Amino acid sequence: MTNRHLPLSHHIARYCPGSRLTQDGEVSGAAFYLRPEERFVSVEWLEYLQQPDRNSEIQKVLEIFSSKLKLGSSAKIAILNVGNLCRHVRTYSMYSIRVLHEPEDDDPAHSGIHDTVQDEMLISELIAEKVSALHPAH
Amino acid sequence: MTSASFVIDDPQWSTGDETLNRNKIARLFADMFQAKSVESASEHSLFQDVSAEAVQDQEMGELSRQWRSQEVLDLLEQIGQSHASTVGEPIVDRLHCLRDMVKEEEGPEAEISPDSLRGLLVFLRLAGDYHPPQISLTPEGDVYLRWKAGKERLFSVHIQNDKLVRFVAFCPNPRHPDITDRFSGTATVDTVLYTVDKACSVLEWIRE
Questions:
Q1: Do B105 and A125 touch (CB under 8 A)?
Q2: ipTM associated with this complex
Q3: Would A19 disulfide with which of A64, A137, B72, B101, CB 3.0-4.6 Å?
């Protein structure tokens, strides 16, 4: 069974450790690099969480991240719109990326940005350009 | 018997003839301990008798980590000394800060890649005067440099090791300033500035 594409109008959240941010607090392209064992860039699908507003979605996402990761004191949560992200990468590189639902037993909103490895550094910087908001992880 | 001593004019890449310095000795020991550790682990998988050897492995692993850690500190010191304090100090301060962050995020064994730091040292020596870059780390601990000016200019360099880098450069199109040209590729650590400068004149704004 193929994984479902996220609607273009929806939003995703990416956990960005402090070491992937610049000293000015901006998201660097390194925040969207894959680890060697990863197939896609892990994110959370905000609308899937069915919260009343963005703040509640962020709180919920923080709960999910803190159950899976040790949240660094300088880490941030980056918010991106799926459609803006995919269009931007397609327009300014020769590649298309996909944002697919990748549910896990303990994290049903888990999703992934696929196909970034085609030109990882360029695509990661293009993704970083489309971060619409940054929230402290603490 | 005579002993030859060489003066290396272009020291960034090893010729094998350099005098061993503290940093190089640390690296050699780290490599040796790591190799011993791997060799010993594979022997254990053949002969299930692990108790005493497992302790030895742990000790070797610990020694290897200590040497790596010392190597990173030595490289940070060299980076600080390679530039005027106005440029070198902020870079070294930032790298120490990143080192603390990565240890907090991923555990005390996590470390900045020494190979990448060696590449950074070469890059900085050749780069000359420039604005100190924004610095972050990749998931593998490689150094990721970033210069940005406005929304339309970006130059990022991912230092993979002491020879190779990946780069991304965004700049206004010379004929259509409202359009941003975007380049990416790979180069060597000692040529990337000039390669990218030919395509989008990064030197004029990272050195302003």
A1: no
A2: 0.94
A3: B101
